[in-house]
């Protein structure tokens, strides 16, 4: 994963002054988890709560970038912090999609919860492949040698679609496209391993 995407560059200026304070990256990670869970709750309630949840989800995504930036700027990087970050990311992501599925239960029926569960599990599988297995070639589009976005950054599309009134489309896309991405990453890694 890149540490210099547009989202990283967006939060970096705010993290520079925090690097000289007692605030720790793990505290930001905890805030990421709490805002992610609050967003999932808003998604589950639906209606206007879903719109508010989208704002909280965006804050949660920015905090996810901010914790790593603070760790790098303050020299407080650790294997434990990295594992805590990945765990919180996974919990927040799964909760987000399940919450969205619950919120859309009345419109899509039980398939909404299934789509939410599949989307959440698939995003965790992508996180695992990229962050734990270090699957090769997973950096996103770039410009002048710099990565503009990575796989995690695609999550920004969720609140945007919800704000546009396309919650059902967001859930269907996440529940169908994300498993396909998992399969493609697995196949790509197997091909790479066979060639090596």
Shape: globular
CATH architecture: Up-down Bundle
The SSE string, one letter per element, is HHHHHHEEHH
Strand content: under 5%
The CATH H-level superfamily is CDP-alcohol phosphotransferase transmembrane (TM) domain
**Helicity range of the residues?**
over 70%
> By helix and strand content, what is the structural category?
mainly alpha
Largest sheet: 2 strands, antiparallel
Q: What is the name of the CATH class?
A: Mainly Alpha
> Which strands sit side by side, in order, in the main sheet?
1-2
Q: How far is it from the N-terminal to the C-terminal residue, by CA?
A: 22 Å
**Can you tell me the residue ranges where pLDDT is under 50 for at least 5 consecutive residues?**
138-145
CATH fold category name: Four Helix Bundle (Hemerythrin (Met), subunit A)
What does this structure look like?
With 196 residues, the chain is mainly α. The protein has one domain (6-195): CDP-alcohol phosphotransferase transmembrane (TM) domain (Four Helix Bundle (Hemerythrin (Met), subunit A)), CATH 1.20.120.1760. It has helices spanning 6-18, 25-45, 48-74, 79-103, 105-108, 111-132, 157-163, 167-195; strands spanning 142-143, 146-147. A two-stranded antiparallel ribbon has the order 1-2. Strand 1 and strand 2 (146-147) form a beta hairpin. Helix 2 runs parallel beside helix 4 and helix 3 packs antiparallel against helix 7.
